């Protein structure tokens, strides 16, 4: 009875913890990994003193292999098996070992079919299976607005790598690059990097980028539905085209009015959020400009000139930021390459001695 309970608990383990992150390592795998760690170094007759010395030797060997693997990842390019932009993206981000795992999952998507099962407008459910094996299908829920997908196999939740079923859904929905939420830093070539300044620089843009992404995905989702309905007949097509032309005109007017409102107040949105102390000064400047009794055409011309200056300033800031991030990344990569070369030389000298 006791043994049957143990077997039941052992078989239930993977199911219960399937959605818990374990870096794809079970308890038995950890035990096997520890045993293989000391293979060729210790045995049943090894004394405690010998074990300590051999442990240090095993540790040095493991570190040497890790250094060589890091060097290969940083200085050699993996062989790409598909023309997919996602595979190229993964080859530039992941370590060599993790990329090979991802590449295997990506190639397997060519044998899978993803068919739409349900669609509630926000989350779409797909059935993913090999051709002719519908009885072995997996369910993938895809939120197009958030660009997030979950699979019933729970591979990403368990191992931190996207499964072939989610990648198959990405393929049929034209998601060409891997969303950032599926790229865990622990699996990337920069996992050991300590470039904090880049993260601080990106913090200033994070809120804008997130909100912009949400707006973009929402519009994209609604536009796709609009296109499908508008293309059903000639009448609906004509109505859809007229609506698009009217919408484009209104968007242009709204964008122009927004720029005029921001510059009439004497500051941009970012200035309003970050520097509230200038409010009185801006209001004073606004009243002074009104006292000049400028015509509406002259006001529009000045607003357009200021708009161009603001846009030019934004572009310059973005260029400076990109250059700064690029320089920091190059410095960090150079430091890593130098450290790897030093480690390899050090281990080579030990072997010679």
Describe this structure in words.
With 353 residues, the protein is an alpha+beta fold. The protein is flat and about 90 Å long. The relative contact order is 0.07. Strand 1 (112-119) and strand 2 (123-130) form a beta hairpin. Helix 3 (48-75) crosses helix 12 (296-352). It is built from 12 helices and 4 strands. It has helices at residues 2-16, 27-37, 48-75, 85-93, 96-108, 155-159, 164-172, 196-230, 234-264, 269-274, 279-291, 296-352; strands at 112-119, 123-130, 138-143, 148-151. The chain is 66% helix and 7% strand. Residues 138-174 form the SWIM-type domain. InterPro entries: FHY3/FAR1, Znf_PMZ, Znf_SWIM. It is found in: Nucleus. Belongs to the FHY3/FAR1 family.
Strands, total number: 4
* Share in helix: 55-70%
**Major sheet summary line:** 4 strands, antiparallel
Task: Tell me the strand percentage band.
Answer: 5-15%
List low-confidence stretches.
Answer: 1-18, 25-33, 194-201, 203-209, 266-280
State the distance separating the first and last CA atoms.
Answer: 59 Å
The run of helices and strands is HHHHHEEEEHHHHHHH
**Major sheet strand order:** 1-2-3-4
Instruction: Name the shape in a single word.
Output: flat
Q: Would you tell me the structural class of the helices and strands?
A: alpha+beta
